Amino acid sequence: xxxxxxxxxxxxxxxxxxxxxxxxxxxxxxxxxxxxxxxxxxxxxxxxxxxxxxxxxxxxxxxx
Length: 64
Prior knowledge:
The chain is an alpha/beta fold. The longest helix has 12 residues, at 13-24. The protein contains 2 helices and 3 strands; from the N terminus they run βαβαβ.
């Protein structure tokens, strides 16, 4: 079975860094992209086709 493809979206770098560290330790998960706002997330989701998006619900510009 192929690893779960995950897109991380949060405007706080520290949160994304922590989530990345947790996910990178899982052999059945792979981070396919990171974004710091909703607009970037939409573009990356279209390009990279993640299975799951882990997203902050409150961000400047465009919320999750």
